[in-house]
């Protein structure tokens, strides 16, 4: 089958090959035919080494498709079912799951260390235990979440990561209050979803901050009340909050420098929500006096900060009701052969989300 493979960490280009085989099928597993997958910035971060991932590997974790076969012991799924790929399935038995923090379950991360593909030259890993830049993939049954028939594969793919992450940051983690002021730093697919979440919650002012003009323009279409470049952020803070700072600031870049900017533009007693996935050696610093004196809440938000299955259902309900716009987030569509052009478009900020149709 065909798949896009990164041979070594640090390479910028993927090689589309036709000699890849999905392996590992057996009890508790399902074989999926991927129909659509989105490009998430985490894929690029894994390729560059910012996020840990063994190589060679097939990127992609934001996918949807059809069940081809189910292994022994799998219930609730059968061949032909339409599903989205959950890259962080909950085991249901660990301490995090028992506390209701299923998004902190580590069972899914353990899958990343087991190859689920092979080539004549050896094993190939799937990013985050999945790897959706491919025609087929074998994953644990918990990674295959059934979707209603009226949800297109490309919409389901977005819900599988970026939309759930952004909406959840605003709704689950920060719990944005109606009438509040919000700033979102970084307006790619996850940032746009955060903006939509803040709008759903009833924020009065939503300022989008991004260096790319096309992304700022897009943010206005998705619910931002104002969009500014990073150089204009300080002025926006002064005009909108009389210099006090925003009630909520979301960092959706994954850099300590932007996290520090977010902290400085959060009002005393306000909330800084860190959504971007960054590097292990990039340290965010606050001094002990400001931490105590300003009483700003610093809230990390991983995968939307809540039960992902409930978050999927909520996203679908909001989409059906017209409260969020997911179709317009897909700015580019390519086949697997166009994957490298799509990655370049993501790196430059030209695209919000690219759908790879397989």
What does this structure look like?
With 358 residues, the protein is an alpha/beta fold. The chain contains twelve helices and 19 strands. The strands form four sheets. Strands 4, 6, 7, 10, 11, 18 and 19 form a seven-stranded mixed sheet that branches. It has a six-stranded parallel sheet with strand order 14-13-12-15-16-17, with helices on both faces. It has a four-stranded mixed sheet with strand order 3-8-9-5, with no helix packed on it. α9 (256-264) links the parallel β15 and β16 (266-274). α5 runs parallel beside α6 (189-201) and α5 packs across α11 (308-320). The chain is globular, with a radius of gyration of 20 Å. It starts with a strand and ends with a strand.
Short recap of the structure:
The chain has about 350 residues and is α/β, with parallel strands linked by helices. The chain is about 30% helix and about 25% strand. The protein has twelve helices and 19 strands.
Total helices: the number is 12
Kindly estimate the percentage of residues that lie in beta strands according to DSSP. 25-35%
Helix content: 25-40%
Number-wise, the strands total: 19
Largest sheet descriptor: 7 strands, mixed
Low-confidence stretches: none
Average pLDDT value?
96
Instruction: Give the class from helix and strand content and strand pairing.
Output: alpha/beta
| Rg of Cα set | 20 Å
Distance between the termini: 11 Å
Shape: globular
């Amino acid at each position: 089958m065909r798949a896009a493979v990164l041979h070594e960490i640090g390479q910028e280009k993927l090689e589309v090959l036709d000699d890849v085989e999905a392996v590992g099928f057996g009890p508790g597993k399902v074989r999926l035919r991927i129909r659509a997958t989105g490009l998430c910035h985490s894929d690029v971060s894994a390729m560059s080494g910012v996020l840990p991932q063994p190589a060679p590997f097939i990127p992609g974790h934001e996918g949807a498709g059809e069940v081809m076969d189910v292994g022994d012991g799998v219930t609730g799924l059968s061949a032909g079912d339409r599903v989205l790929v959950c890259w962080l399935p909950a085991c249901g038995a660990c301490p995090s799951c028992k506390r209701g923090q299923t998004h902190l379950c580590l069972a899914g991360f353990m899958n990343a260390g087991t190859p689920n593909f092979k080539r004549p030259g050896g094993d190939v890993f799937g990013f985050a235990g999945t790897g959706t830049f491919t025609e087929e993939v074998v994953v644990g049954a918990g990674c295959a979440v059934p979707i209603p028939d009226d949800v297109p594969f490309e919409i389901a793919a977005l819900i599988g990561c970026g939309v759930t992450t952004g909406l959840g940051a605003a709704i689950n983690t920060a719990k944005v209050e109606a009438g509040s002021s919000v700033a979102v730093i970084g307006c790619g697919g996850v940032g746009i979803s955060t903006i939509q979440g803040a709008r759903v919650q009833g924020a009065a002012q939503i300022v989008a901050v991004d260096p790319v003009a096309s992304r700022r323009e897009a943010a206005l279409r998705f619910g931002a009340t104002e969009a500014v470049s990073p150089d204009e952020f300080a002025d926006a803070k002064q005009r909108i909050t009389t210099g006090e700072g925003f009630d909520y600031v979301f960092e959706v870049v994954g850099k300590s420098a932007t996290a520090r900017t977010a902290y400085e533009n959060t009002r005393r007693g306000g909330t800084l929500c860190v959504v971007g996935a960054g590097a292990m050696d990039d340290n965010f610093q606050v001094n002990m006096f400001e931490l105590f004196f300003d009483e700003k809440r610093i809230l990390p938000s991983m995968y939307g900060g809540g039960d992902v299955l409930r978050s999927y259902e909520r996203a679908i309900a909001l989409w059906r009701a017209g409260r969020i716009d997911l179709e317009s987030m897909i700015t580019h569509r390519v086949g697997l052969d166009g994957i490298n052009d799509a990655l370049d478009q993501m790196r430059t900020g030209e695209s919000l989300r690219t759908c790879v149709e397989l």
